[in-house]
């Protein structure tokens, strides 16, 4: 394979238009988009036109893209579970970059584990240069006491209003019905027969957003070993979550996540307290390409308190995609793959089970024994 990787994009929505295409077009010596797949004719055409893709590279079904044989790797940028598409690509030997979440079920993740594959999960914050500075500042800092996460999440419309995106138009009815049925089957497998509210929390709040924080926490202090508490409110239509988990070595994790439609600025803060100081990382909205991630380190030097501040440089999305290029061309592992994606499914199922226990609500499926 040459160093220039031919990419097939699965999904032509926000992730493709706002995030990945600008990076790809800055790295034309390494990437070329040769196929795009999306059930929305309007979004598919917009991305294909932008990439100079002719009729033979425009598809409404993923199977058509695979049969086209004109790609070296696949970027899976759709919403929802990605297990089936990743498995189909891996089965024919194509490397896969998969946006979060990897899947809705452990069964999907285990199927991927059984297939020899090169797969990267899109946890871009792991590639943030400021986060790497935070890891350096924490090197040797023991014992950790707690990891605290706070996310203030405005509406997608508020975060995207500065961008000129082509919206999706109406998906054909048979395609929409089939996709909805597949999602329902997967959530039934994961959770059993539960309320729509619990399904929404699991699919869109936990696996759709909080997995990014779980990926960071894993690198900082390990995966949660137990969920101690989980609550969401308002009762009938929850937009806020609080989660308390136990990490290895008796380190406690607390997550506070709030969907605040009119909040003026997306904010994601991760703070680690240890025996001799603290490290705080504040991430901006992923849709603000020029906004830096900020790290603040509090420690002691010469018996005096010291506060240091660092800002990120470069694009974490770009570094992430360059790492995927290394995976495709040289087999170099990326920061997260199937094992990490699976671990986050386990944690999210434990959280939703604890939430259901506290509410005295039934939960079944895989989550009943997660």
The first-level CATH class of the largest domain is given as Alpha Beta
Helix content: 25-40%
Mean pLDDT: 96
CATH architectural grouping of the largest domain: 2-Layer Sandwich
Element layout with pairings:
Elements: E1 5-10, H1 14-26, E2 31-37, H2 41-51, E3 58-59, H3 62-68, E4 73-76, H4 83-91, E5 96-99, H5 106-113, E6 119-122, H6 129-138, E7 144-153, H7 156-160, H8 173-191, H9 196-221, E8 226-233, E9 240-247, E10 251-259, E11 267-274, E12 277-283, E13 294-301, E14 304-311, H10 316-330, H11 338-358
Parallel strand pairs: 1-2, 1-4, 2-3, 4-5, 5-6, 7-10
Antiparallel strand pairs: 7-11, 8-9, 9-10, 11-12, 12-13, 13-14
Helix pairs in contact: 4-5, 5-11, 9-11
Structure characterization notes:
With 370 residues, this protein is α/β, with parallel strands linked by helices. The protein has an 8-stranded mixed β-sheet. It has a 6-stranded parallel β-sheet with strand order 3-2-1-4-5-6, with helices on both faces. Strand 1, helix 1 and strand 2 form a beta-alpha-beta unit. Helix 4 packs parallel to helix 5, helix 5 packs antiparallel against helix 11 and helix 9 packs across helix 11.
Summarize the structure.
The protein has 370 residues and is an alpha/beta fold.
Question: Which characteristics define this entry?
Answer:
alpha/beta, Dihydrodipicolinate Reductase, domain 2, Rossmann fold, 11 helices, about 375 residues, 6-stranded parallel sheet, about 40% helix, single chain, 2 domains
